[in-house]
Design goal:
The complex is a heterotrimer of chains A (352), B (292) and C (294). With 352 residues, chain A is of the alpha/beta class. Chain A is 30% helix and 20% strand. Chain A contains 11 helices and 11 strands. In chain A, helix 4 packs across helix 5 and helix 7 packs parallel to helix 8. Chain A is globular. Chain A starts with 17 loop residues before the first strand and ends in a 25-residue tail after the last strand. Chain B has 292 residues and is mainly α. Chain B contains 10 helices and no strands. Chain B is elongated, with a radius of gyration of 24 Å. The two termini of chain B are 35 Å apart. With 294 residues, chain C is α/β, with parallel strands linked by helices. Chain C has a single domain, classed as 3-Layer(aba) Sandwich (Rossmann fold). Helices cover 34% and strands 22% of the residues of chain C. A 6-stranded mixed sheet of chain C has the order 6-7-8-3-9-10, with helices on both faces. A 4-stranded antiparallel sheet of chain C has the order 2-1-4-5, covered by helices on one side. In chain C, strand 4 and strand 5 form a beta hairpin. In chain C, helix 3 packs across helix 4, helix 4 crosses helix 5 and helix 5 packs parallel to helix 6. Classes of the chains: A alpha/beta (352), B mainly alpha (292), C alpha/beta (294). Chains B and C meet through helix 6 and helix 7 of B and helix 2, strand 6, helix 3, helix 5 and helix 6 of C. Chain C: It comes from Streptomyces himastatinicus ATCC 53653.
């Protein structure tokens, strides 16, 4: 392993405003490292996006925060949540279950599997209130459940509370999941691709509800997705993950208009469907995302990067460019460079 | 195609995090070992048994276990251990015949029922249900009454009675495979139903067949024991665990070991096949595998 | 032209001058009957398609945009001759395919091929890539398959030795390339692609879109491209049809539909699509949502 960079992408530790601080998070399975040295902080009320492609480790990062890693995967490092006296990494199930659903809640990609199909949705919402004793009795929990369903915009919430999950459409189910997640006013809401399975118009509505839900509660949000436009719409700050590492982070405006890491630059270029060359072809990143755990040593992006040199065989340090921003790249996009002006990263794939 | 980016043509083999084989589970290991043991006993019995298992020796009746007779002898003076060894052959024979009959008929039936028009499949399945409602042992006894008691007849009957289990399971699997896009693609490419059944459906339901076969094996072994116990199965003198159990009945109070040895052999073999079936299911079931 | 459309008595598209349209869809409806849920009443039929008509001239890139349940999947299956319309007619290269028996559909199997959304489930996991790509060739009794498969794999940017591997050994983008190679195998003139890039990573999506564009140009294909994402269709297609609830609510040149949508549903759809540009100029989630409230 290469030495750990000493500069953290986030501001100093232990600020009273910090809701979530993740330090040196690694996730390993067998001998393979799937997430390496992830380090970030989210402050109260802050909406932070985590973007990455398949194998980037973004979902594993979210699951580590929730203590929900699949069997066989091991997290090391530290995940601290404000108001919780212990580290979430290595906490046992009993302790985690007191935290989950109360201080920290999650919205998953697939709303059908996140709900119990044999239980009325009103009861499922009431249950999280009763488990964490935020409501004294069934009657008040039920009233609160109906109120939550109203907040997520379900028409006729009292009737909806008595319906089963299969009676709802996909978008409505996701709103029920959101209602459950928001029930106890969590300090942190973790969303893992919450709108990916939804239609465009439904996505717009759910996204709106999520943002409003966390704003109303002054909750912090960690929003995981592969969709740059969704992150830019819903979040203030963004972290870019590739090959199990954070490669760049910063305010949305800054990262998406003046990316520094070559991967971020390529990603923005490739997702822009309006920028084409004279033959009408899109800008691409060469090669494909390697399978998880098979990224090159040193800079994880170097086998797809047009700028890679021998220096990239060692791991680049994190270069802080502001309190919340920085990147890890030896050959960053020059600061004056506007996005997309760099040569499109078209290349012949190097290794087979 | 100059602007075409050549991807690193092939992802390297080995662990790719997408679709890896599950590790060998405990039940697969234990089940496999037990089944291997039964197989080994059967093979061994062809070349060696301590005594002739069918040799009646009136001077050595009801001997306790000893160095000479490892499991003792029965009321005719036959060596119990040799009979157990030899009986494993019957057990395997029984399993292969019953499962073979059931699979050879049931698998194509299930595939045809799953690929044909809906009403056709439903019709086949209702017929299937009727057969399923008919007790397997009763069918075997009827067969024995008509064709005479023999291991083969009994097992063909058990096999026929197990056809619905295969057909139903395979139809379910076939319906799933038929919905996949690769089958739609094959249809769009002009492949006929026969080619689709053989090239796409059969390979993709084969794991179901393997699992059901190992479970069917256990059922057949148990059925043979029951039939032999009732006197409709393997006729003497061929050693069979079930008949050994039956013959031990009258001496149960004085010589319980005569029931214990074949009883344990049956229980362990059935357990082995069931464990193997479970283990294979965990390892191969495509429904489990497709969710990463 | 062996068969003229027969089921359209009046609206024959003028005298057949020049080449026929690649695809001609006239007033197609498709009803499904759900399984009964009540003993007394049969379930009401589901109208998956309600009078859909459009034409795709040879060589055009035609987009179909719509959300789940709008009927686009049913439409695709009917185009490919895998399903039959309840009424109306579909003609491929001027030949009516509605009501043809399977063995008479052979020319459709040669002329029109499909590319699917999920590059995993559209490839048989138990078959080698070479057999997958070569399958349409067997169906058509093509000799010298190995050579043609190698040629196809190279045409989609894979190495020829990929033929000996299994689909799970490839990444999503590579699998979609395999799927495209299979579609090209019978040398079709029409490719119908059903959400071919929506399951792909962003960095790979552009590659696959470029590949499709290259192949369409080089082989002068007619492309029908189905997507829920109007911005992808805008990049790929010349013309677009917007589908909603089993009907085409708007058709037009892509750029025009995108810039100046006429139907309220199209406007809603466009407004709801998040884009980087919109987001960076301050469009919030609430804006995406609010804009489509009537």
């Amino acid at each position: 392993m290469t030495p750990v960079p000493d500069t953290a992408p986030a501001s100093g530790q232990g600020s009273p405003d910090d809701v979530l601080s993740v330090r040196n998070l690694d996730v390993t399975v067998g001998g393979r490292t799937l997430v390496e040295d992830v380090d970030f902080t989210i402050r109260a009320g802050e909406r932070v996006g985590l973007i990455g492609e398949s194998g980037s480790g973004k979902s594993l990062t979210a699951l580590s925060v929730m203590g929900l890693l699949p069997e066989g995967l091991r997290a090391t490092g530290s995940v601290r949540l404000a108001g919780v006296g212990h580290d979430l990494v290595g906490a046992d199930e009993a302790r985690m279950s007191r935290v989950r659903g109360k201080e920290i809640a999650m919205v998953f990609q697939e709303p059908m599997t996140a709900l119990n199909p044999t239980m009325k949705v009103g009861r499922q919402i009431a249950e999280v209130l009763l488990i964490h004793r935020t409501r004294p009795d069934r009657a008040s929990a039920r009233a609160a459940a109906v109120e939550l369903l109203a907040q997520v915009g379900l028409p006729d919430p009292a009737t909806a509370a008595d319906a089963y999950p299969h009676q709802f459409s996909g978008g409505q189910r996701q709103r029920v999941v959101l209602a459950i997640a928001l029930a106890n006013d969590p300090a942190l809401l973790v969303c893992d691709e919450p709108t990916t399975a939804l239609d465009v118009t439904v996505q717009a509505r759910v996204l709106d509800l999520i943002v409003r839900g966390v704003q109303d509660r002054r909750s912090a949000m960690l929003f995981i997705t592969h969709d740059l436009a969704v992150v830019a719409t819903a979040c203030e700050r963004v972290m870019v993950m590739y090959g199990g590492r954070l490669v760049e982070s910063g305010p949305v405006q800054e990262v998406f208009t003046r990316p520094r890491h070559r991967y971020t630059q390529g990603l923005i270029g490739a997702s822009d469907l309006t920028a084409v060359d004279d033959r009408g072809r899109l800008v691409t990143i060469g090669g494909s995302v390697p399978p998880a755990g098979q990224f090159p040593a040193g800079c994880v992006f170097r086998n797809r990067c047009t700028q890679a040199t021998e220096a990239c065989a060692t791991r680049p340090d994190w270069i802080s460019t502001g309190p919340d921003s920085g990147y890890a790249c030896f050959h960053p996009v020059p600061e004056s460079g506007a996005p997309g002006t760099g040569t499109p990263a078209i290349q012949e794939a190097g290794r087979g | 195609m100059s602007a075409l980016v050549t991807e690193a043509a092939v992802a390297s083999e080995g662990p790719d995090g997408r679709r890896r084989r599950r590790p060998v589970t405990g039940s697969l290991l234990v089940g496999g070992l037990i089944v291997a043991l039964v197989l080994g006993m059967a093979l061994l019995s062809f070349v060696w048994t301590p005594h002739d298992p069918t040799l009646v020796n009136s001077s050595a009746r009801l001997q306790e276990p000893s160095l000479e007779y490892w499991f003792g002898t029965d009321k005719f003076g036959r060596d119990v251990f040799s009979q157990i060894l030899m009986g494993s052959r019957t057990t395997l024979f029984v399993g292969f015949v019953a499962v073979g009959v059931a699979a050879v008929v049931g698998v194509p039936l299930g595939i045809v029922a799953g690929m044909g028009p809906r009403w056709f499949g439903e019709l086949l399945m209702r017929g299937n249900d009727m057969l399923l409602a008919f007790p397997a042992l009763l069918l075997a006894i009827m067969f024995a009454a008509v064709y005479g008691a023999s291991t083969l007849v009994a097992m063909v009957a058990i096999g026929i009675a197990s056809i619905p289990n295969f057909a139903r399971l395979i139809r379910g699997g076939t319906l799933q495979v038929m919905k996949t896009e690769y089958v739609i693609a094959a249809r769009a490419a002009g492949r006929g139903p026969f080619a689709i059944g053989l090239r796409h459906v059969l390979p993709n339901v084969s794991s179901l067949v393997i699992v059901q076969a190992s479970v069917g094996f256990a059922i057949a072994v148990l059925a043979e024991a029951a039939l032999s116990f009732l006197g409709f199965g393997t006729p003497p003198p061929t050693p069979s665990w079930g008949r050994m159990l039956q013959e031990s009945q009258e001496l149960l109070s004085s010589d319980p070991r005569l029931a214990v040895f074949p009883g344990v052999a049956i229980a362990v073999a059935v357990l082995g096949f069931n464990l193997l079936g479970d283990g294979l299911r965990d390892r191969f079931d495509p429904k489990l595998e497709d969710h990463r | 032209m062996a068969e003229q459309p027969t089921s359209v008595p009046l609206a024959t598209p003028g005298p057949q001058t020049g080449p026929a349209n690649a695809i001609d869809v006239r007033d197609v409806t498709r009803d499904y009957r759900r399984p009964r849920t009540s003993l007394r009443h049969p379930s009401p039929p589901v109208h998956a398609l309600r009078g859909v008509s459009f034409a795709v001239p040879q060589g055009q890139r035609f987009g179909i945009v719509g959300e789940s349940g709008c009927g686009k999947s049913t439409l695709l299956r009917i185009l490919a001759g895998l399903d039959r319309p309840t009424s109306g007619s579909v003609a491929i290269d001027g030949r009516d395919i509605t009501g043809l028996r399977e063995r008479r559909l052979k020319f459709v199997r040669e002329r029109l091929q499909l590319v699917f959304q999920d590059p995993m489930s559209s490839l048989d996991p138990r078959m080698r890539v070479g057999d997958i790509v070569g399958e349409p060739l067997i169906a058509q009794g093509h000799g010298n398959r190995r050579e043609r498969v190698a040629e196809l794999l190279e045409a989609v940017g894979l190495r020829a030795d990929a033929a000996d591997r299994y689909p799970h050994q490839f990444s999503g983008g590579q699998r979609q390339r395999i799927s495209i190679a299979r579609a090209l195998a019978p040398r079709p003139k029409i490719i119908v692609a059903d959400e071919p890039v929506s399951a792909l990573d962003v960095s790979v999506r552009a590659q696959v879109l470029n590949l499709i564009a290259d192949l369409v140009d080089e082989l002068s294909l007619t492309l029908v491209f189905v997507s829920h994402d109007l911005s992808v269709v805008r990049h790929v297609c010349d013309r677009v049809a917007v589908m909603h609830a089993g009907q085409i609510v708007e058709t037009g040149d892509t750029e025009q539909v995108y810039e100046d949508p006429q139907h309220s549903y199209t406007r809603r759809l466009i407004a709801a699509v998040p884009t980087l540009g919109k987001a960076l100029s301050g469009v919030s989630a609430a804006d995406l949502n609010q804009e489509y409230r009537p």
